[in-house]
Structures are given as C-alpha cells and as structure tokens.
Amino acid sequence: MFAQIKAVVDLITPGLLALKKYHSERDHQDSVLNVLRVYFILLDCVNDGEKLIAEAGPNPVEKILSLGPAESAKTLERWDSIIVRQGQRLSSLQGAIFGQNHLAVINPDLQKRISEVVGYKTDRLVTLHGIGAALFFRRMFPIANTDDERARYISVMAGEEGDILDMARINSEISALRESLDQYRTVVEQVVTGSELLQLSKQARQDTSCTDVP
Asked: Which of 21, 135, 146, 213 is the most buried (most CB within 10 A)?
C-alpha cells in the first residue's frame, strides 16, 4: 500500500501548482480543500498503517496464534478496527484524487497515468485499487471466521502476497511516502495564504475524520 500511494502522490504533487491559475476564489478554495482532504487521508493511512505493521510484526498470523484467547480477541478487534478505517480511506482517496479537476486541466494525460498507477486496468491484487477493494470487502463483509484469516488482512494492507511481512522494505516505503507527503504539503503551502491554509485545513481535517467507523 505504501509504495502504491507514494507513486500516486509523486504524480499529483507537481500538478498542485495549477491551483494558482484559478481566477475564481470559490473554485480556488474548493480545489485547495480537496487537495487538503487528500493529504489528510494519506497521512492517516500512513500513520495507522505504520502503527499496525509495528504491532503485528513480520508474521501477524503467528503472533495472533501465539496469544491466549482473551488477548488474541482483543488484539484482533483492534486490528480489525484499523483495517476497516484503511479500507474506508482508500475508497475515499480514489474518489478524491479523480475529483481534482485542475489536474486534468493542466495535464489531460495525468488522469490516465494515475489510473495506471492505481491499477484499475490490471487484475493483480497488489495495486492500490486491489488493496482498497480487498479492505473494502473486509469492511462490508466481516465474515472471516478464523483468527489467522483476520490477521492476514494486515499482509493485504501492506501489499504482501504471502503471510510474511518484509519489515525492512515496508519501513523504507513508509519513510519514502512520508517524504513525498512533506513535498505535497510544501507545494500546497506555496499556493495559499497562511490564514487560508489554517481555515481550509481545519475543514479538511473534519471532513476526513473516521469517527463513524468503530
């Protein structure tokens, strides 16, 4: 998930400068609000994802099966809650990204390139679209009956095809994604005033809160 998101962020970031070209204050603010929503969704994805990976360790299934019944139930409940939020975020993220009309205006080919990076045109699971679809399925149909099946969703979120997490690779991807997010935020700060950023950031933060998810 982290590498796939980074690829999208790196495509979008240069196009954010197009926000300067809006002459309508309403259009400008709407576009800035949307890119800030994307930023906070991404930030929450990496924060919750990093926390979950760190707790689960390189073998989430083995860890769960090593716990006693009460502790494993409590742990899985916590993991499930994060997985559900991640599925919701990835679903919201794709809608928000493709709603950024200024990107299509400044670079008509960009939407196609983003679609390719997201992975709409491939059947592989390890794409942003594939991961998002799997986590969304977990949210809509929480029917996994065994502890190991539930624990395997952490591997899905991490973009692994097996049960074992490559911790060094994942941590490297997380660091790289955080750097890309910093660049994204820096570009946004170049096209808005300080007061505008404060006001719209507050609204975007409220809009992207997952308080309705257990």
From this structure: 135
